[in-house]
Amino acid sequence: MKLSNTHNTYLKELLSGTIENIEITLSQNGIDEVKMNKMIEEGNYELEEVKSKITAFKEILEQLDNVSEPGASFKQISSLEKVAKKKKEKTQEKIENAIHMLLFINKKISVYSVSQMASVSYNTAKQYSKLINLHENNRLKLLAS
After folding, report:
1. Dihedral of CA 43/44/48/49: which sign?
2. Which of 66, 53, 55, 61 minimizes the C-alpha distance to 12?
3. Distance, CA of 93 to chain centre
């Protein structure tokens, strides 16, 4: 589970305070680590449970210290943006090359024919429909004259 920084801080404070309260209570009752271990060996299961909780709380605190902010880092985001930009440029180049090839062989320039020639999906080619329609209109004007 990912926590926000605020929730992480609140949970750390809560656990630290709980550990501190338990340790104060033990100290007030004259129970130190050595005495606690001896009492546990003698069969004091309540103290064994308290010791287990303290250990578990401390382990959780360590894990909370190693938790990073949820979401992608700035470096990851900028890297993803660069990759997306390159992918878009490559796709646009494929679309333009397909249009030029269709012009060269004097075939109809449509979203479908461009998608087939460029080996991209119909929906990807459709994003360039203005460019495709512009070239088809120009091709038709040249044929009409």
Report:
1. positive
2. 61
3. 29
The pLDDT tens digits of the residues spanning 35-78 come to 888 898 998 888 899 899 999 999 988 888 876 666 777 888 89
CB within 8 A of 73, min separation 6: which ones? none
State pLDDT tens for residues 116-127.
999 999 999 999
Gap between the Cα atoms of 68 and 119, Å rounded: 41
Domain boundaries, the chain: 5-65, 74-144
For residue 115, which of 95, 89, 92, 86 has the smallest C-alpha distance?
Answer: 95
Helical spans, DSSP H, in the chain: 5-28, 33-41, 45-65, 74-104, 111-118, 122-126, 129-144
DSSP 106-130: T----HHHHHHHHT--HHHHHTTHH
Can you tell me which residue has the tokens 């546990």? 40
